[in-house]
C-alpha cells in the first residue's frame, strides 16, 4: 500500500495482505500474554504489563504547548500556541518489577487530552532505535526473554533457531547497549523509534528531550524505587520541562517505514522542536496516570502509526492491558499436558482407525474424547467475522460499562472484544463453508427420506426433552430472514405435485417460495456469505429475557406474569416473553417454569438484600437463571439424550470437575488437561483457536424436529385420567396459551414427562411440520431445513464427516442398513457424496444409548464445552461477588426435577427427587 507522498514512503503487510497480517498479529498477541504469564511467576502471581511493567512516576496535570509550527506540520490538534492537559507516565522497560538500580531502558508515555472525544498517546523509549526489525522479532524476543532467570537464557538459545544467530546476536547487543542505569527520568531522552503520519503526506518519528539542566544526585543504594522519589523531590523544587521534537522521513533506505532497527538520526536532518512539555512544580504522583493503558493507536487518522511494528502494538498492547484488567485471559497449560496431549492425539488417532471411541472401556473412551476435543479445538474453529484489517485509530479507547451484569444484546461478555458473540455477530464455522448444488430437489429428498410414515418413539426420553432443546435453540441461534416476496428461495415442485400455496388462501403456485436469510455480505475470504445471529451467541437465557432492554417483559425486578402465574399475552394472543417464534405448548411450558423461577429468585434476593434496587435484583436473578439453564443442559439433558456412562461422567466433569474418589480420572487429567480437573466454572475464559461464536454447523446438527410427536394425550396428574387428546396443530401458535391454562402447568408437565418424543432418524419428520403456517407463510419445514443448510454453505454429509476427522462413507449399506432406505437413497441421489448433511445425520446408526449420530456428536463435544468455556459469567466471573453466594448455592442445589417440584409441588409424588426429569416418568 502506498500512502502519503505516493513515491516516497509506503507500508507493506506481513503475509502479503492486511488480513493475513491480522491473523499473524492475533497469534503474536497471545505470545505477549504468555510473556506476562512467565513474568507473573517471577513477580509472585500478579499480572503486570507486558512491557514497561514498573511505573516510576506519573502525573495527570502536565501541559503540552505547541510552538510556531511550519505550515506543513499544522495538522489536527498540532497548531501554533495550542495548549493541552497531558498525562505523563515514566517507567522502566522490563516486563518484570525490578529495582530502579537495575540497568534498563526507560520509557515515557504521554496522553494528550484534546477533548472528551479526542486524545493522543505518544510512546517513547530511552534508546533511539528498536532492537526488533519487525513484529515477529519483537514478539519472539519478548517471549524468549520473559520471566528472567535461567529461562531467559534458554529462551535466547531457542531464539537462535527461530530467528537465526545473526539477528539474535544483533538484538541482544542492541538491548544491552540501551540498558543502563539512570539517575533521573527527567534527564533522559526518549525516542518513538517507529514512525507515524503527520497529516496526509508527512511521515516522521518523534522524541522527547530534557530542557531541565538540573543534574540528578547519586541515588541512595538502599532505595529500589529512587527514580520516583527523585522526581518527587525535583518537582518540589521546581518544574520539569521537555522538548517534543520530530524527525522527518527522508527516503526508504535511510528512514524505512517497516524496518524499525534502522536509526533515523542524521546530522543532515536534526530534530525539529515543535512543542514544550511542562510538568508543573509541586505535581504529585497520580494513581490515575499510573493506571493509564497507553496505546499509539489512541489517536486520529492524521497521526496514524506506521509500520508493522506499530501495527502489532495495537493487538499486543490491547491484549497485555486486557490481561492485566481481568478482561482477557490465557490458559497456562503445563508442559506435561502439552506433551501428554500430543501423545494422546496420536495414539487415539491410530486406535480410532480400528475401533471407535464408544466401543472402548469407559475410562479409555473419556481420554479418547478429550483427545478428540483437543483436535477439534485446534482445527475446527473457524472465524468468519470480517475483522479490522489493517488496524484503525480510535480517538478514545472503549471502556467496559457492564462488568458484573449480562447485557441483553450479548455485548461486553468478552471485555477485550465487546462485540464478540453479541446480537448480529456472524455465525462461525466448524468446517469450511462451500457453495454447493441445489440438487437433488429438496422436496423429493424430504418426501422419500424424511416424511414420517409411522411414529418412531425415542423410548429413553420424554417430551420435556424435546421441548427443552427447542427452548435452548431459541436462546442460541436465530437467523434473520426476509419476508416472503423480498428475496425468496424458489424450489420447483416435482412433476407429480400439482401446486403449493405459499400463503394461507393464496393461489396454487408451481414452486415453493421460502423467505431468504438476510446476508451480512461477503466474508473475509472474499466469497463466503455471512449470516448474523438475531440472538446473542452466549448462553444467557435470552429466550426468557429477550435481546433488548424492553420493559414489556418486566414488572420492576420481576417478569410479568398473570395472577395465576402464566405468561401474559399481547393483542394477537401471543405470549409475552423473550422469544416466541415457532411457539407451541412445549415452549409455553418451559417459558412459564423459568419465568416463575426468576420471580421466586427475586423474592429470595430481595429478602436477603433489602438495600438493593430493582435493577440489581433483576440482573442478579437473571444471571442465576441463565447459569441454572446451562447447568441443567450440561448435567441433565445431555446425559439423558446421550445415555452412556462415558457421557454422564464427562458432562459432570465439565461442570463439577473430577470427583475426589475417582483417582484414575484425576491422574489422567492431571497428566493431559490439568485445567479440567475442577470443572469449567472454576477456570478462566478460553476461546482456543478462534473468537467465540456459534456456528452454521452447530445449527445444522441441532435440527432435531423429529423429536416432535404429531399426537398428544394429556392426563390428570392426580388421577391419571385422560383430560384431552390433541394434534400438534392444536397446540401451536396462539392456541398454546389457552391449552396450558386449561390443563394447568402441572398437568402439562406431567403429560409431557410420561410420553415419548420422536426418534431423530429418517422417515420420522413430523407430519404437522410439513404444512405449517408461520408468520403469513405456509412452509414445509423439512424442505426449509434442507434449503437453509445448503444455502448457508454447510458441506454435504461425506465432506462434513471428513472435515470432522471421520472416514468417508463408501457404501450405501454403511450409511443405513435398511434395504428399502438404501433403495430410496439410490433413487434420490446420484452418488453417496451428494447426500445432504441433515439426511446423513438422521441415517446414521447412533452409538448405543445415543439419541443422535456420532457425526453430529463431533460438533456437540466441541461446542458444548465451548459455550461454557468462552463465557466469563460461567468461568472467571462465576463467583460470589457477581452471583452472590446464595445464587451459587441455588444453582448448585437446583436440578430440573427440583425446579419442577418447586413450581408444581403436586408432581413430587410422580418424580423422585434424584430422577432425571428428561427420562420417561412412570405414569401412575
UniProtKB/TrEMBL annotation:
Protein name: Peroxidase
Region span, Disordered: 392-419
TM segment ranges: none
Lineage: Bacteria, Bacillati, Actinomycetota, Actinomycetes, Micromonosporales
GO molecular function, one term: metal ion binding
Signal peptide (UniProt feature, chain positions): none
Record field: compositional bias (Basic and acidic residues): 392-411
Keyword vocabulary terms for this entry: Dioxygenase, Fatty acid biosynthesis, Fatty acid metabolism, Heme, Iron, Lipid biosynthesis, Lipid metabolism, Metal-binding, Oxidoreductase, Oxylipin biosynthesis, Peroxidase, Plant defense
InterPro entries: A_dioxygenase, Catalase_sf, Haem_peroxidase_animal, Haem_peroxidase_sf, Haem_peroxidase_sf_animal, Oxylipin_biosynth_metab
One GO process term, biological-process aspect: defense response
Domain of life per record: Bacteria
Needed cofactors: Ca(2+)
Phosphoprotein in keyword set: no
Gene3D superfamilies linked: Catalase core domain, Haem peroxidase domain superfamily, animal type
Amino acid at each position: 500500500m502506498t500512502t502519503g507522498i505516493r513515491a516516497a514512503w509506503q507500508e507493506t503487510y506481513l503475509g502479503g495482505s492486511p488480513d493475513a497480517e491480522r491473523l499473524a498479529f492475533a497469534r503474536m498477541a497471545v505470545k505477549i500474554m504468555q510473556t506476562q504469564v512467565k513474568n507473573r511467576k517471577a513477580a509472585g502471581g500478579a499480572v503486570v504489563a507486558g512491557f514497561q511493567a514498573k511505573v516510576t512516576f506519573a502525573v495527570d496535570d502536565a501541559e503540552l504547548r505547541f510552538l510556531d509550527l511550519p505550515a506543513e506540520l499544522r495538522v489536527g490538534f498540532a497548531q501554533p500556541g495550542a495548549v493541552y492537559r497531558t498525562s505523563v507516565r515514566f517507567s522502566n522497560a522490563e516486563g518484570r518489577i525490578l529495582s530502579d538500580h537495575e540497568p534498563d531502558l526507560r520509557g515515557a508515555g504521554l496522553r494528550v487530552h484534546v477533548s472528551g472525544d479526542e486524545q493522543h498517546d505518544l510512546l517513547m523509549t530511552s534508546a533511539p532505535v528498536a532492537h526488533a526489525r519487525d513484529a515477529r522479532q519483537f514478539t519472539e524476543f519478548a517471549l524468549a526473554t520473559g520471566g528472567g532467570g535461567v529461562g531467559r537464557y534458554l529462551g535466547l538459545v531457542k531464539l537462535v533457531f527461530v530467528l537465526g544467530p545473526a539477528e539474535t546476536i544483533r538484538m541482544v547487543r542492541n538491548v544491552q547497549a540501551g540498558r543502563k542505569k539512570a539517575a533521573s527520568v527527567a534527564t533522559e531522552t526518549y525516542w518513538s523509534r517507529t514512525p507515524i503520519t503527520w497529516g496526509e503526506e508527512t511521515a516522521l518519528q518523534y522524541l522527547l528531550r530534557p530542557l531541565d539542566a538540573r543534574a540528578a544526585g547519586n541515588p541512595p543504594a538502599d532505595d529500589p524505587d529512587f527514580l520516583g522519589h527523585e522526581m518527587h523531590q525535583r518537582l518540589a523544587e521546581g518544574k520539569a520541562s521537555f522538548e517534543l521534537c520530530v524527525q522527518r522521513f527522508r527516503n526508504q533506505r535511510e528512514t524505512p517505514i517497516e524496518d524499525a532497527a534502522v536509526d533515523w538520526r542524521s546530522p543532515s536532518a536534526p530534530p525539529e522542536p515543535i512543542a514544550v512539555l511542562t510538568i508543573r512544580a509541586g505535581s504529585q504522583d497520580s494513581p490515575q496516570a499510573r493506571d493509564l493503558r497507553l496505546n499509539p493507536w489512541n489517536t486520529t487518522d492524521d497521526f496514524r502509526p506506521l509500520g508493522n511494528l506499530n501495527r502489532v502494538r495495537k493487538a499486543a498492547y490491547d491484549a497485555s492491558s486486557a490481561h492485566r484488567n481481568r478482561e482477557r485471559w490465557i490458559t497456562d497449560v503445563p508442559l506435561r499436558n502439552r506433551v501428554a496431549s500430543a501423545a494422546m492425539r496420536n495414539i487415539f488417532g491410530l486406535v480410532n482407525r480400528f475401533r471407535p471411541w464408544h466401543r472402548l472401556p469407559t475410562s479409555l473412551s473419556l481420554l479418547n474424547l478429550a483427545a478428540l476435543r483437543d483436535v477439534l479445538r485446534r482445527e475446527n474453529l473457524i472465524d468468519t467475522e470480517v475483522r479490522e484489517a489493517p488496524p484503525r485509530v480510535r480517538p478514545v479507547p472503549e471502556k467496559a460499562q457492564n462488568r458484573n451484569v449480562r447485557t441483553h444484546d450479548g455485548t461486553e461478555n468478552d471485555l477485550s472484544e465487546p462485540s464478540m458473540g453479541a446480537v448480529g455477530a456472524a455465525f462461525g464455522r466448524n468446517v469450511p463453508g462451500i457453495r454447493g448444488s441445489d440438487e437433488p430437489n429438496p422436496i423429493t429428498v424430504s418426501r422419500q427420506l424424511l416424511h414420517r410414515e409411522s411414529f418412531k418413539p425415542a423410548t429413553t426420553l420424554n417430551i420435556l426433552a424435546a421441548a427443552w432443546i427447542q427452548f435452548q435453540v431459541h436462546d442460541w441461534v436465530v437467523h434473520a430472514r426476509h419476508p416472503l416476496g423480498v428475496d425468496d428461495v424458489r424450489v420447483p415442485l416435482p412433476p407429480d405435485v400439482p401446486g403449493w400455496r405459499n400463503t394461507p388462501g393464496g393461489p396454487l403456485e408451481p414452486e415453493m417460495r421460502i423467505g431468504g436469510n438476510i446476508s451480512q455480505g461477503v466474508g473475509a475470504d472474499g466469497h463466503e456469505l455471512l449470516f448474523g445471529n438475531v440472538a446473542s451467541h452466549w448462553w444467557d437465557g435470552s429466550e426468557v429475557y429477550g435481546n433488548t432492554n424492553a420493559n414489556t417483559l418486566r414488572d420492576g425486578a420481576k417478569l410479568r406474569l398473570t395472577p395465576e402465574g402464566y405468561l401474559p399475552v399481547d393483542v394477537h394472543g401471543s405470549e409475552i416473553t423473550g422469544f416466541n417464534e415457532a411457539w407451541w405448548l412445549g415452549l409455553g411450558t418451559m417459558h412459564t417454569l423459568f419465568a416463575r423461577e426468576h420471580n421466586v429468585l427475586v423474592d429470595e434476593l430481595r429478602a436477603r438484600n433489602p438495600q438493593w434496587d430493582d435493577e440489581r435484583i433483576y440482573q442478579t436473578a437473571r444471571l442465576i437463571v441463565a447459569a441454572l439453564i446451562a447447568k441443567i443442559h450440561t448435567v441433565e439433558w445431555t446425559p439423558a439424550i446421550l445415555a452412556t456412562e462415558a457421557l454422564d461422567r464427562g458432562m459432570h466433569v465439565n461442570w463439577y470437575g473430577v470427583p475426589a474418589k475417582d483417582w484414575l480420572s484425576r491422574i489422567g487429567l492431571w497428566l493431559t488437561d490439568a485445567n479440567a480437573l475442577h470443572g469449567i466454572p472454576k477456570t478462566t475464559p478460553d476461546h482456543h483457536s478462534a473468537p467465540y461464536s456459534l456456528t452454521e454447523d452447530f445449527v445444522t446438527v441441532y435440527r432435531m424436529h423429529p423429536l416432535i410427536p404429531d399426537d398428544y394425550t394429556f392426563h390428570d396428574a392426580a388421577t391419571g385420567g385422560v383430560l384431552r387428546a390433541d394434534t400438534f396443530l392444536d397446540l401451536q401458535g396462539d392456541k398454546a396459551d389457552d391449552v396450558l391454562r386449561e390443563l394447568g402447568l402441572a398437568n402439562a408437565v406431567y403429560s409431557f414427562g410420561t410420553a415419548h418424543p420422536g426418534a431423530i432418524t429418517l422417515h420420522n419428520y413430523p407430519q404437522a411440520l410439513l404444512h405449517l403456517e408461520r408468520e403469513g407463510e405456509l412452509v414445509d419445514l423439512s424442505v426449509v431445513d434442507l434449503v437453509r443448510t445448503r444455502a448457508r454453505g454447510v458441506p454435504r454429509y461425506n465432506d462434513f464427516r471428513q472435515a470432522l476427522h471421520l472416514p468417508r462413507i463408501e457404501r450405501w449399506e454403511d450409511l443405513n442398513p435398511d434395504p428399502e432406505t438404501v433403495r430410496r437413497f439410490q433413487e434420490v441421489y446420484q452418488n453417496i457424496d451428494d447426500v445432504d448433511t441433515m439426511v446423513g445425520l438422521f441415517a446414521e446408526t447412533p452409538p448405543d444409548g445415543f439419541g443422535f449420530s456420532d457425526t453430529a456428536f463431533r460438533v456437540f463435544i466441541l461446542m458444548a464445552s465451548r459455550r461454557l468455556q468462552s463465557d466469563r459469567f460461567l468461568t472467571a466471573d462465576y463467583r460470589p461477588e457477581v452471583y452472590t453466594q446464595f445464587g451459587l448455592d441455588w444453582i448448585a442445589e437446583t436440578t430440573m426435577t427440583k425446579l419442577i417440584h418447586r413450581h408444581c409441588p403436586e408432581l413430587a409424588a410422580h418424580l423422585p427427587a434424584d430422577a432425571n426429569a428428561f427420562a420417561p416418568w412412570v405414569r401412575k
